[in-house]
Amino acid sequence: MSEPSRREQPTTDAQPATLEHATLGTYLIVAGILTAVTGLEFGVIYVRRLAPVLVPLLLVLSAGKFALVVMFFMHLRYDSRVLTFLFVAPLVLATLLAVAVMTLTGEFLVFGR
Amino acid sequence: MMSRHDAVTSSLKEMGGVSPHVVSRIFGHSGARVWSWLTTVDHKRIGILYGVTAFAFLVVGGVEALIIRLQLARPHGAVVGAETFNALFTMHGTTMVFLAIMPLNAAFFNYMIPLMIGARDVAFPRLNALSYWIFLLGGLFLNASFLVGAPPNGGWFGYANLTTRQFSPGPEIDFWMLSLQILGASSIMAAVNFIVTILNMRAPGMTLMRMPLFVWMSLVVQFLIVLAFPPITVGLIFLMFDRFFGTHFYDVAAGGDLHLWQHLFWIFGHPEVYILILPAFGIVSEVLPTFSRKPLFGAQVMIYSGVLIGFFGFGVWSHHMFAAGMGPVADAFFAISTMLIAIPTGVKIFNWLATMWGGTIRATIPFHYAAGLVALFTIGGLSGVMHASPPVDLQQTDTYFVVAHFHYVLIGGSLFGILAGASYWWPKMTGRMLDERLGRLGFWVLFAGFNLTFFPQHYLGAVGMPRRIYTYAAGTGWGFWNFWSTVGAFGIAFGVFLFAVNALLSLRYGPPAGADPWDGRTLEWRTASPPPPHDFDEIPPVYSRDSFWREKYGDSQGRKPTPRPAVPDPHGIHMPAPSHWPIVIALGIVVAAVGALTSLALVLIGAAVLVGGSFAFALEHHRNAAHVRQEGGLGVDHRKVAMWVFLGSECFLFGTLIATYMAYKGRSVVGPHPHEILNIPITTLSTFDLLLSSLLMVLALAAVQRGDRFQSRLWLAGTAVFGLIFLGFQAYEFTSFVHEGLTLQTNLFGSTFFVLTGFHGGHVTLGVIWLLTLLVLDLRGRLGTQDAVKVEVAGLYWHFVDVVWILIFTLVYLIP
Q1: B156 is catalytic
Q2: Rounded to two decimals, what is the model's pTM?
Q3: Contact with chain A for residue B330, Cβ under 8 A
Q4: Residue B302 shares a structural domain with residue B431
């Protein structure tokens, strides 16, 4: 009986499940940023000069808050990449489908019927 | 080797559950047997339950089809009236999709996946039982509509606004709408369970690329289920609100758009086609190599093709809507994407042919069905490509050409694949062989009957026979082929009957199968037939794809892998204990559904049983040492993986709710409008509150992890209180809106706003209850460091609720 080749060796897909965790200080900084950005969001809607860029600005700020909570409070930055895939792939797909539904159904109709 | 009875009994003693001996004393031996099936959590038994139940529903759906065919056999048919005919085609479609083909596939998922990946059970055995009981009771609830003379009659697609109260005032659509939501919950639970099982419970050495094709296709299907079911769930919730509470989602006069239902239905409906067909593709990919004595040709490409089919499946839904008037750009996009999906599908067909080519073919029963699938699905696939062209589709849509097409896909594909799998794994499940001659006779009867039924329907559709008509005039010239189509339908029924007879005879007279009757390639053939309760005495190591074959025959040069010592179970073989809580919860759900059609009191009783059962279910094994660590091959706890998969599903749920709000924004025909009523300063405060609750949640988890009881209680309580404050803000907002004249029924804005934010509030409420439960456990000294993962999973849910609010705050409140 011959020795098994490298390909025959039992292997797994396992990666290091977690890296180091965030410290209390990191959590407090993130919470501070979230609070500040929320205040900023509230403020910018009253600034007339920002009206032309208000929607993209709000979307960017919102996406930033979303990412901070997911990366730090939900630990995705420190956890297995499989978990990131399990969440981010559906999130991206859901976003694309939501935009498609808005485009095909609603006031965002750009194709014409 | 431990017997099933020994394993369950020992486990019951350990768990302090209801002993079979006690049940036996009260109800006798047969009562104990029934009880053991009612409370089973064994994946193999649950697989059998799925198989038997789904086969019974297949017969019900088949009888409905036969009546349809009898009605259409002759011009001016008078077997049933138009109303009954509508109910029959509605129930036939709904039954075959949700109660027959999907759960028949689930039978194989349950029975075979743990065996094929070298696991002892699924990741969450009790959740598995819960999925089954919800499915069974949901199916019975749907069919109970016949007993009260109100079977659903709006088509399996339930197009709005035919389904709204105005045009369907009776309870028919309510039965359909509620049962589909119940069945959807069952499917999502099962899918989350199987994703975790496949990702986290594979035997050592079984990398993803070494997984059998059936497991791979099953994995793709589970992702399709968790992602495709939320949009239809939301669509059904809108319908429920329109019917029960007078909202305007599908009310054109109030600004609603009927296309919304069609989009939500087909965003689910097209992936559903792959949910039905991909398991059959996986089965064929196991059967053909075994009976060709060759490895699957291009196995890796087959995997990628399956994944691509699943992915593209989300980008083709609107080809079901070419006749709805979406415009040339949308039509062109969906035509191209639909044609693209033919590429990975064609790859599979050619690879199956290449697998058989030059092989040492054994034409057994399963091989017949697998080869039959290749032939028949190809015909269905080719007519499908024809529909991808919008001008051609406009000629074919709503004709019998389409009926022929999808039956070639779903019978020629799914059902033939299922019968291939049933005959292939029958010896493994029962320990008995089927009769080959009777089996082949059954195949040929079914094959001939199927083609006689559906091939002429291509012609009937091409000459203009519409779908869903309950009769036709003699002068149309459709009578001849309709007659033969009906004859063929009885041939299909006889073929299925022969299969069932063969199976029943085999149970009594079939020769013993042995562990490996087909000279199989994958791990399920490595254990006894039928397998012991714990599946494998030792978890088998995996050396390569087709590892069992390599163990027996070596590689192409005959080199066998060096046997590796078995992986010991560090805590011994622990089998999950039976539980009666799954059936209690399922009963609660169905009682609530019955109450929705009859009385509020029943709704409350059902809800109480559901809530009480859920608490008992959740806490049943809270202090069980065997449940503390549930880490798998990914190095992550099963519960954590499950929560992330569930949150992925939730992205689709909230994505659909938010997309609907945005699509309907500004379309209310009467006020009040958002800018007149939304209170942004107050909502900003509640947003601060929810964000801070997330910080407290993180602190609570850290405290539990380091065993700091004071801080864990403090921060858990703090998080719950902040959640309650948020709910208080929401209650204030809702109340003030009602006082200002905005309700669910006022306009489209009221409908979309209250449903979206109300659903979010419901999630917050659930999160608060979860946190308070953890707090009570902590106060009673029952939340130690070993329970940190429970807090972590609750925290993930809580943070997700937070991030959803971040989006709602921006999209609903801040963007003008």
Answers
A1: yes
A2: 0.94
A3: yes
A4: yes
What is the CATH classification number for the domain harbouring B787?
1.20.120.80
CB-CB contact of B75 with B476 (8 Å): yes
The percent of residues above 90 in pLDDT, for chain B, comes to 89
Please tell me whether residues B158 and B24 are part of one structural domain.
no
Residues 6+ apart with CB under 8 A from B26: none
Tell me which DSSP letter residue B101 carries: I
Q: Which of B67, B43, B98 shows the shortest CA–CA distance to B232?
A: B98
Tell whether B12 and B122 lie within a shared domain: no
List the Cα angle A6/A12/A17 in 5-degree steps: 135
pLDDT tier for residue A6 given thresholds of 50, 70 and 90 = very low
* CA separation, residue B712 to residues A70, B514, B572, B689, B706 (Å): 22, 55, 33, 19, 9
Eight-class DSSP state of B775: H
Report the DSSP beta bridge partners of residue A79. Answer: A18
The Cα–Cα gap between B126 and B137 comes to 17
Judge whether B552 counts as a catalytic residue.
no
Q: CB count, 10 Å around CB of B209?
A: 12
How would residue B623 be classed by pLDDT, with cut points 50, 70 and 90? confident
d(CA A11, nearest CA chain B) in Å: 4
Name the one residue in this structure whose structure tokens are 């758009």.
Answer: B257
* Residues forming a β-bridge with B432: B512
Given B243, B320, B763, B790, the catalytic residue: B320
Distance CA A19, CA A13 (A): 17
B568 assigned to some structural domain: no
Interface check for B580 against chain A (CB to CB < 8 A): the answer is no
Q: Domain tally for chain B?
A: 4
Contact A90 B648 (CB under 8 A): yes
Q: How far is CA B378 from the centre of its chain?
A: 25
Count Cβ atoms below 10 Å from residue A113 Cβ, excluding itself. 11
CA B24 – CA B33 distance, rounded (Å): 8
Q: What is the pLDDT of residues A83-97, one digit of tens each?
A: 999 999 999 999 999
Range of the domain at B688: 620-814
Q: What angle do CA B418, B423, B428 make, to 5 degrees?
A: 115
At which of B568, B599, B614 does a domain end? B614
Q: B1 and B96: one domain? A: no
Q: At what angle do helices B172-200 and B581-597 cross, to 10 degrees?
A: 150
User: What mean pLDDT comes out for the span B277-300?
Assistant: 97
At B654-710, the pLDDT tens digits run 999 999 999 999 899 998 999 999 999 999 999 999 999 999 999 999 999 999 999
Q: What is d(CA B463, CA B164) in angstroms, rounded to the nearest whole number?
A: 33
Q: Which residues contact A56 (CB under 8 A, 6 or more apart)?
A: none
**What would the two tokens of residue B11 be?**
């486990």
Residue B227 pLDDT more than 50? yes
Cβ-contact B725, B689 below 8 angstroms: yes
Tokens of B311: 């992915």
Q: Are residues B540 and B596 in the same domain?
A: no
Report the complex ipTM: 0.93
Q: In 3D, which of B262, B265, B203 has the Cα closest to residue B233?
A: B265
Collect all residues of chain A within an 8 Å Cβ-Cβ radius of residue B816. Answer: 45, 54
| B643 plus B744 within the same structural domain | yes
pLDDT of the residue at B247: 97
Smallest CA-to-CA distance from B784 within B688, B679, B712 is with: B712
